[in-house]
Input
Amino acid sequence: MRPTERADGPAAAEARKADWVRPMFDAIAPRYDLLNVLISLGMDRGWRRRAVDDLLAGRPRVVVDVGAGTGDLAIEILRRGQRQVRVVGLDFAGAMLRVGRRRIRALPGGARAHCVQGDALRMPLADGSADAVVSAFVLRNLDGLPEAFAAMRRLLRPGGRVIILEMTPMRQPLLRALFRFYFNRWVPLLGRAVSRHPSAYTWLPRSVDGFVSAETLTELMADAGLTDVRMRRLGFGAVALHTAARARG
Ligand SMILES: C[S@@+](CC[C@H](N)C(=O)[O-])C[C@H]1O[C@@H](n2cnc3c(N)ncnc32)[C@H](O)[C@@H]1O
Output
């Protein structure tokens, strides 16, 4: 399946998203950061700050950023200056990671983060090695949510925490209609003009439309054996911030 096709058709059930999601992110890497700011009207930074507030409240030492992309979360973590924190940014798109590495290296404390190329569903990292796993705007792109949460849980030490930031279908009918007009009509035009990619920014609204509700995501996290699952909505309800933990013992 190509990103221009419907994500909810029968073909989607058979195709692996990873096969085209990875080259798609490689292709848009040079314009990804600019488009994030344009599309979210600058709000994306505030959402990541909220996720990092929750993350650092647990005083983690080893943090894995799953689907780190161009390093926005890692950079926000390093900027807080908690010198005990080490960040591993994992992503399967090499071009996204190259942008991330360059940005991280330019920061004071940049040596406390490093990037690893790998798949979120088969992470090349030791079980139980992370105090926290954080992930922003990645889940919609993955081939299996239960598998993704199981992989995150395995990576955590007992008591470790998961922080997930993701777009979510809006509930309020008027806001939902406005948002869908903006996201389904305007974003693909803007995205194509700036990134020069034919379909990446058509996939973005489709992936949100086809994604599970924030409540279902809460249930899936609990089903994966995560405990203390909590959810907050941000960005007028367009974004959900989920936090959870791996049970101790
Ligand atoms: C929308 S970007 C988000 C990047 C970053 N977290 C942020 O907040 O800007 C999604 C990222 O997830 C990565 N990704 C998608 N599927 C993945 C997978 N199966 N394994 C590893 N990375 C994946 C993509 O390469 C891309 O960099």
Q: What stands out?
A: The chain has nine helices and seven strands. The domain at 10-246 is CATH 3.40.50.150 (Rossmann fold). Residues 18, 21-22, 25, 67-69, 72-73, 91-93, 96, 119-121, 136-138, 141-142 surround S-adenosylmethionine (CB under 6 Å). The chain has one domain: 10-246.
